[in-house]
Amino acid sequence: MKICFFGGEEIGGLGSKHYIKNLSPDDKKNIKAVINVDSVAQRDGSKPYIFTVNG
């Protein structure tokens, strides 16, 4: 399991694109899941929200 934190997301995902670009083909094949925590805070902390995208 790898836990990664990337910068440059707001300017085109530069950090994550660089990471993927430099993985070996075998490493890319071994990716089973990705959890993207895009925002970890909200203005009104009284109501938790979960948003998903199916596609």
From TrEMBL:
UniProt superkingdom: Bacteria
Protein name listed in UniProt: M28 family peptidase
Annotated source species: Clostridium autoethanogenum
Stored Pfam families: Peptidase_M28
Domain Peptidase M28 per the UniProt entry, residue ranges: 2-47
InterPro entries in the cross-refs: Peptidase_M28 (IPR007484)
